[in-house]
Amino acid sequence: MKKESIQKSFEIAKDRYAAVGVDVEKALNKLQEIAISIHCWQADDVTGFEKLENLGGGGIQATGNYPGKARNIGELRADIEKVLTLIAGKHRFSLHAIYGEFDGKYIDRNEIEPQHFSGWLDWAKENGLKLDFNTTSFGHSKSGDLTLANPDKAIRDFWIEHTKRCRQISEAIGKFQNDPCIMNLWIHDGMKDLTVNRYRYRQILEQSLDEIFAIDYKNMKDCIEAKLFGIGLESYTVGSYDFYLGYGAKKQKIVTLDTGHFHLSESIADKISSLLLFTPEIMLHVSRPIRWDSDHVTILNDDVIDLAKEIVRADAFNRVHIGLDYFDASINRIGAYVIGIRATQKAFLQALLEPLTVLRAYEANGQYFERLALLEEAKSLPWNAVWDYFCLKNNIAVGEDYIAEIQQYEKDVTSKRN
Length: 418
Ligand code: RNT
Ligand code: ZN
What we know:
Layout: H1 3-19, H2 24-33, E1 36-39, H3 73-84, E2 92-96, H4 118-126, E3 130-134, H5 153-177, E4 181-185, E5 190-191, H6 198-212, E6 220-225, E7 236-237, H7 241-251, E8 254-258, H8 269-278, E9 282-286, E10 288-290, E11 292-296, H9 302-313, E12 320-324, H10 333-352, H11 356-364, H12 368-379, H13 383-393, H14 402-412
Parallel strand pairs: 1-2, 1-12, 2-3, 3-4, 4-6, 6-8, 8-9, 9-12
Antiparallel strand pairs: 5-7, 10-11
Helix pairs in contact: 1-13, 2-10, 3-10, 5-6, 8-9, 9-10, 11-12
């Protein structure tokens, strides 16, 4: 695409937006600041470097066998560095506990320490990224159906110890980067079939969480992620949305909303305003469920746009952390990252370009026809010209130009991995 055409289209778009009271430059400046927490696990289908063979239960599953996945930390870092050349803005990188540098030794989950992640700290710093963290309770011989909610004290204590260590590691990361490390806690605990102990497991989970959160840290923040159901655990999920919403509101913990963890017709966007009133902050796992929590690559769809709009409308950027969570093993993985990150940014750009002042004036006057009409018209305002200009300004591939760059990287790098 010609530079001049992009610039010309941008100028026209700017005028068009000004006519509905939108300051495009302001929206662009805001977009530039929005950090997305890029999940490490799309790069290798949630395998990690602990010598996990596969996900091995735990309610989640990556499907597909596209060649070229990252086999070690060096390859994973190289892939992410490639991704960073194809996206604009300063972002974060979200590690799972199984992605430590264990130097060929088997370090069990209740033995991990900050030192296993120090290489990541240096790498993140060099690449202008801030790190976030996740506990890993799936894919382990002690995972079973129940971890933190397990009535067996020995198993429960193992996972409590793992989670406590993850908090220590997160604290060390946050301190090093001088910016809080956001630690997400998701466990798969549940039952495949009918259980007669719903209350009991939830009560145990509450007690485990209380023990885990007993120490207050300054440089990390805790998030608790609910889920509807996991694979093989379809009848009951201990950490349901009601459970974590209750816990988060009572204990002032951040609730993670994964867009794949609700009934398919449920609006996640609608939850933002309620959570903001009763919990300290929100963590998002932007994903794309197809019929179930399938973790398809995030695309620019109404669900993501609505979510972004609710954050803008609530003026809540300082209280919402935006992370991605999907793992599609059936397509080029670097491409999967770039599509998902760009889609999320496009959603936020559209949200930032919403003619909110005029819309709110209509609503205040009871002019509901006018409100609906402008909402409709806003959908086809030239946001794409603003998006192209954003890419141009940031010196990254404009529009579909990134496809060729990813094809080239595949040819030169990932296709050579066996
Ligand atoms: C699982 C949760 C969780 C995981 C990652 C790998 O359903 O969404 O966030 O996807 O921790
Ligand atoms: Zn998630």
